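INFO batch 0412 | record 1 of 1 | parsing
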Amino acid sequence: MADDGTPGGFAGRLGATVEDAGDGAATLAFEVRDEHLNPAGTLHGGVVATLVDTVMGQAVRSTTGDGEVPATSQLTVTYLRPGRPGPLEVRGRVRTRGEHLTICEADVEQEGRALAHAVATFALLER
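INFO prediction complete | emitting tokens
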């Protein structure tokens, strides 16, 4: 994570900011702009997938030591309704932490309504 609250990498380039991360949970803020929309005029599913992957990665990182690096090994996103331009809240949390694998969940909301739910498995790699 960068010092300015951006998660770095692709999600940071999209404009996501880390609002909170610690104790196996994380929250991202994101402003949906025109460049994030698909041809139908709704939030592109790839942006949603990036946001949930990033927030869950941040949640896992809040539980790891210096020598461990989480890597996504499985990601399932269920899209519940289309997103529109405006602010999003993305929350992730660690559900189960094993020795080598960690299971997480994430939710995306806009104006208090669920847009997507995701589940992921992260492998814990050694640096």
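INFO post-check: The chain has one domain: 9-126.
INFO record closed
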